[in-house]
Amino acid sequence: MPVKGLLPVTARIEKMDFLQPAYIGEVIKVKAKLAYTSPRSLMVVVDVTSENMLTGKERTTNTAMLWYVALDQNAEKAPGSGRVAPIPQLAANTPAQQELRTLGEQLYRRRKEGLARPEGHPHHHTLEDDDLLNPARYTKAEGGASPSASKTELIQIMMPSDCMKGGSVTGGKLVPSNIVKGGVIMKIMDEASSISAMRHCRTIVVTISLESMDFKHPAYNGNVVTAKSLLNFTSSKTMELEVTVEAEDLGTGKSVITNTSLFKFVSLDKNLKSGPVKPLHLETRDDVRRYLAGQRRYEEDKKARS
């Protein structure tokens, strides 16, 4: 977004799929294209390919849909904070561009509708049935483990090297941005969820997708960031984990939730093939609530892929 005074910031990752691994010595190519613009956000579609230099063969390893907002760094606020600025609108001049624009508009409207639903809305999913949420009604399969057994917390202080390039103009000088890069937060979240998944399976695990990653608040230089990972749901071969990130201001002691996301993993056996996943033992009402929500998402995803 080459507009003077505007700093692009990741607002949400709609979905990121890890389709195939990339290997040492291969060349990675990243192609990003603007798909859709709303008045104050834009969606970017990214495709990652890996090329084997010996054979010349390429394959797609990752796909992603990301949302960005633009911060006005010339606004009269604290350096690096900024305000969300209007986005120059994108024209769709080809059928392919129109297809992407339609997809982006559908996702944008679905997101707005979801955020607007009150707790009592008939389409707002709630699980409040006392009997349904009673852990005693769910059997504990042999060899399983509870979500608390693999719960993980990673703590890291944010440094200037973790922050975005660019900044605000103050007194005719450029003040570097103190906003932490979205990729840094994503890496910490992936590490926390990977540890939880490995603790549960005690095998090699790989990320197959992440979705619904919301960047609710920025983290800043000097903040202490804590990523908390907890298993939601397991099928016979997949795991869904929820990761929440908090940023603490050491000067004030105040903490805010900066990010939430859902990660999906598979377990690999000694031959690096997809293997079985241990079942979850549900011990609390919250365990059951999160399990049933994850189960619903799993069934919806299976239905969409069939």
Strand and helix map with partners:
Blueprint: E1 6-18, E2 27-37, E3 42-51, E4 58-72, E5 83-85, H1 95-116, E6 152-157, E7 167-170, E8 173-176, H2 182-201, E9 204-215, E10 224-234, E11 238-248, E12 255-268, E13 274-275, H3 285-305
Antiparallel strand pairs: 1-4, 1-9, 2-3, 3-4, 4-5, 6-10, 7-8, 9-12, 10-11, 11-12, 12-13
Question: How would you portray this structure in words?
Answer:
The chain folds into 2 domains: 1-117, Hotdog Thioesterase (Thiol Ester Dehydrase, Chain A, Roll); 145-306, Roll (Thiol Ester Dehydrase, Chain A). It is 21% helix and 38% strand. It has helices spanning 95-116, 182-201, 285-305; strands spanning 6-18, 27-37, 42-51, 58-72, 83-85, 152-157, 167-170, 173-176, 204-215, 224-234, 238-248, 255-268, 274-275. A hairpin with a 6-residue loop joins strand 11 (238-248) and strand 12.
Q: List segments where confidence is low: pLDDT < 50 over at least 5 consecutive residues.
A: 75-81, 117-127, 168-175
- CATH third-tier fold name of the largest domain: Thiol Ester Dehydrase, Chain A
Q: Based on the coordinates given, report the CATH architecture of the largest domain.
A: Roll
Mean pLDDT: 86
